[in-house]
Amino acid sequence: GDDGNHRFLFVMLLATLCGVIFMAMLIGLINDGISSHMQELSKGIEPVIENDHVVILGFNESTFIIIGELIEAYANQKGRRNAVVVMDTCDKQEMEERIRTQYPDTGNISIVCRSGSAYNRVDLDRCSITTSKSIIVALENDFDTIKTILACTQMLNACEGAKAFVTSVINKKENEFAARIAGNDTELEGSGFSVANDRLELLMMESTISKIMTHTCRQNGFSKVTP
User: Fold this and answer.
1) Across-strand partners of 112?
2) Residue ranges, the chain, pLDDT below 70
3) Closest alpha carbon to 199 in 143, 144, 159, 142
4) What is the pLDDT of residues 162-213, one digit of tens each?
5) Which residues contact 180 (CB under 8 A, 6 or more apart)?
6) Residue spans of alpha helices (H) in the chain
7) CA distance 157 to 140
8) What average pLDDT does the structure give for the chain?
9) From the CB of residue 110, how many other CB atoms can be counted at a distance below 10 Å?
10) In this prediction, what percent of the chain has a pLDDT beyond 90?
11) What does the alpha-carbon distance between residue 125 and residue 165 come to, in Å, rounded to a whole number?
């Protein structure tokens, strides 16, 4: 719509084309930046900004049982926002989808998934374990469990204001000693351990199952039950 000689119109046309190209480049840069940030969020490597939350290290069948119990436990706390952080080497979106399928309604619990190693200090720091109130180690391998207990204990003891405690399951009795040492429990003369570190609570799978079977077998009429 400009009026003028051919030279002026040609200059205006070039200016218009340069403006269109500049705006297209600007929109492309903004779009790439947003897409890159969304991809980073989908990877589950962003730090968790929570306090007094529960951290579950490991993603397997026992994780769903723990989440179900936490949903039931927090059901009466209506006026408070509770957070549960789940971390494993699995893909973040896969974990979220499986949890959403298993528990469509999580009540007043916000479940946050992160991808990382359970015994890597950088990944543990992203879960903000020093500001959590409880750490549940739900790994299936005792060797990985012991390494995770060691990493968590050292990080918690190094943080002055940390109040979290670690709960873990050890499958084999012979691995208890290493787990106690990793958790800073000291061995007493003879057998047993002193509770030098109040942060660690070990659940021995073999002895627990044996106790359950013993108490169950003592019930009247149990021997008459047929499969």
Assistant:
1) 85
2) 1-4, 37-45, 79, 185-198, 215-227
3) 159
4) 888 888 888 888 888 888 888 875 555 555 555 555 678 888 877 777 777 7
5) 187, 193, 200, 202
6) 6-43, 61-73, 92-102, 121-126, 142-158, 176-182, 205-217
7) 25
8) 81
9) 13
10) 11
11) 15
